[in-house]
Design goal:
Number of helices: 20
Largest sheet: 5 strands, antiparallel
CATH class of one domain: Alpha Beta
CATH superfamily of one domain: DD-peptidase/beta-lactamase superfamily
Distance between the termini: 127 Å
Strand order of the largest sheet: 13-12-26-25-24
CATH architecture of one domain: 3-Layer(aba) Sandwich
CATH topology of one domain: Beta-lactamase
Length: 654
């Protein structure tokens, strides 16, 4: 060894050991990073270099029955940030101020907050944020979204409803069918370049969004526009608090238009009175007055208790009914002897009370229930109320007469319109329809509503007599203002005093009218109601009937598909294209009604003798099977069940 080596030996050994130990430490650390903690650091790298972004689904649109769009989606951008990650807050605030025109302090206040997430701006158009997208601003998030737009403003606003800032439905169809409309969001991974710009590269994982389904309504945009315009015009003319209207196809139960005024613009729903957002046709009940008299007439004719020749003494316009005084209107001297058709034509309160006293409370109650009063119609809209119809066992001494006149009973507009559809179509109570079909983003049918018969309420011949009475109301009676020359309108007026502070008011009324045409083979049915119009518009003929005529005249002039009765073949019927298989096949709207002829409601047998029970089953085209001995104590199917003719009914004896 040289003297030099010996001199620096300790230093050389120390340096060598240091290098060896450092190298070993680096190898151990590298082994720890790459092998032992490889998964952890891989996630850190991915998190720093890659970003998972949500790709929103396009919300499905809503169309009218002729495929005219009632909604649209507008692309917009949402700007958000994590204030803690924004390095240059003044720079970002200045950039946002240039885009929006708002002061820089507005954004600085948000960026200086202690929150981990703040919305800076929402509903920003794409052309405004181009400058931001080209800049790499640390902590700023830009997300592309869709905003709902309603191209027809107030038209059908209550039915359609609206969405919130997150594009979720919070009212109307938008809310009730939100799960169909909203779709399912996807996601995509993007990489961050050296400049901080985030972009997608081939091979990066992604999931495509599933766009929402489209909904096709039974609503006709032109019908809806006409109805809303005429309702508002009549509301202003009569100084009513509100006006409500419905147009239906009585053969299928399709709701072609439904509205209330005042309305609102669902593009600016937050600036309007929430009171105007309700679908009052299903949420609000009222006492109908004389439009309910038709239920009383059917209850008498159905059970052959009353015939068209029976006469009733109408007491020359004044009658003391238990504790209340009943008066007839429209004739200064009142009326003497009137038949049932004349009672309906002149809307005699005294006559309908005299008639219903022969019928009795149980039959009137049963008939009312058959018409659907006191229960929901089943229309595909949330918020429908059942109305009010107390059980006949709870009626007072005057309830029979009061209900026969349309008091002490609460109905909704959709209930009354649906009940009159049964009169118009020959006696079949139909479920009202507002959804025609729902089509997914692949064009596949996922949901469809077809005409549905709930029950047969009366024999066809009896219903024909009722329609003739309603035609007489227009020609000879209280509904002359609803007449449309050459169209054979039939209908009924109603004027009801409102129940205020424990008594019927002599100042506040509900004016309503229900009509259809042509009366022998109806194509359209309309309901109009005015809430508290000023006198003399409180009369059904002066207030609501005029609006009905105005609406229907405009529709007749607009829609060439409506044929006058003289040109319409007696055998023809309405048709609806459901387009379920893409072949354009047509299904008769009468098919459902025709099929119902082979079905029957099981009669009540309990308490009857065996002979009478078997006779009753035979009369209803039902077969029987007896079990046991003695009196009838049970039956299967239960009373009221709708079954096919020829079904075996098991009768239990004990």
């Amino acid at each position: 060894m040289t003297k030099t080596y010996l001199k620096y030996r300790s230093r050389i050994v120390f340096l060598s050991l240091f290098i060896l130990l450092s190298w070993a430490g680096l190898c151990i650390r590298l082994f720890q990073i790459q092998v032992l903690s490889g998964d952890h650091y891989q996630k850190v790298v991915i998190k720093q270099s890659q970003k998972k972004q949500s790709t929103p689904a396009v919300r499905g649109n809503i169309f009218d029955r002729n495929n005219r769009p009632l909604t649209r989606n507008i692309i917009h951008y949402t700007l958000s940030a994590n204030p803690a990650k924004v390095l240059d807050k003044k720079k970002l605030a200045s950039a946002l101020s240039e885009i929006t025109g708002y002061g820089r302090d507005k954004y600085l206040k948000k960026l200086n907050s202690n929150s981990k997430f703040v919305y800076l701006e929402r509903n920003i158009q794409g052309d405004k944020i181009n400058s931001l997208q080209t800049k790499a601003i640390q902590g700023l998030n830009i997300s592309r979204k869709y905003r709902r737009y309603y191209p027809h403003d107030e038209i059908a606003a209550q039915i359609l409803g609206y969405t919130n800032m997150d594009d979720d439905g919070i009212s109307g169809i938008e809310k009730d069918f939100n799960n169909y409309l909203k779709g399912e969001s996807g996601w995509i991974y993007k990489t961050k370049g050296w400049s901080g710009k985030v972009q997608h590269k081939n091979g990066m994982p992604f999931k495509r969004p599933i766009n929402g389904s489209n909904i096709k309504l039974t609503i006709d945009l032109e019908y809806q526009s006409i109805l809303e315009q005429e309702l508002l015009r009549r509301q202003i003319k009569t100084e009513a608090l509100s006006a409500t209207g419905i147009i239906m196809d009585p053969e299928t139960g399709a709701v072609l238009a439904m509205a209330s005024t005042p309305g609102f613009n669902n593009n600016r729903f937050s600036s309007s009175n929430p009171e105007y957002h309700r679908i009052k046709s299903i949420t609000d009940q009222f006492e109908p007055g004389s439009t309910y008299k038709i239920v009383s007439a059917v209850s008498g004719l159905n059970n052959n208790i009353i015939n068209l020749e029976n006469e009733f003494n109408c007491e020359n316009g004044t009658y003391q009914y238990y504790t209340i005084k009943i008066e007839d209107h429209g004739n200064e001297k009142g009326y003497g002897m009137l038949t049932l058709p004349q009672i309906i034509q002149h809307s005699s309160n005294i006559g309908i009370i005299k008639m219903i006293e022969r019928v009795g409370p149980k039959i009137l109650y049963t008939t009312s229930r058959d018409f659907g009063f006191g229960s929901r119609t089943g229309i595909s809209l949330n918020g429908e109320i059942p109305g009010k119809l107390s059980s006949f066992v709870d009626w007072s001494a005057i309830s029979l007469g009061q209900i026969a006149m349309g008091h002490e009973v609460g109905v909704t507009a959709i209930q009354l319109a649906t009940a009159y559809c049964a009169i118009a179509n020959g006696g079949y109570l139909l479920k009202p329809r507002i959804i025609k079909q729902i089509i997914d983003n692949n064009g596949e049918l996922v949901y469809e509503e077809k005409p549905t018969v709930i029950r047969k309420i009366s024999q066809t011949e009896k219903i024909k007599q009722i329609r003739q009475m309603l035609r007489g109301v227009i020609i000879y009676g209280t509904g002359k203002n609803a007449n449309i020359e050459g169209w054979d309108v039939a209908g009924k007026t109603g004027t009801a005093q409102k129940w205020i502070k424990g008594k019927y008011s002599n100042k506040h009324f509900v004016s309503n009218f229900v009509g259809f045409f042509p009366f022998e083979s109806p194509q359209l049915l309309g309901f109009i109601m005015l809430d508290e119009p000023r006198q003399p518009y409180h009369w059904g003929n002066e207030g609501a009937a005029v609006a009905f005529s105005s609406v229907m005249k405009r529709i007749i002039n607009m829609d060439d598909g409506i044929a006058p009765p003289s040109k319409k073949h007696q055998e023809s019927s309405a048709y609806v294209n459901y387009n379920t298989d893409g072949t354009g096949s047509y299904i008769s709207a009468r098919t459902t009604i025709n099929n119902f002829h082979n079905r029957i409601s099981v009669p009540e047998l309990r308490g009857l003798s065996i002979r009478k029970a078997l006779h009753t089953l035979e009369k209803h085209d039902l077969k029987f099977k007896l079990k046991g001995n003695g009196k009838i104590t049970w039956q299967n199917p239960s009373p009221g069940t709708i079954v096919q003719k020829g079904t075996v009914c098991t009768v239990g004896l004990q």
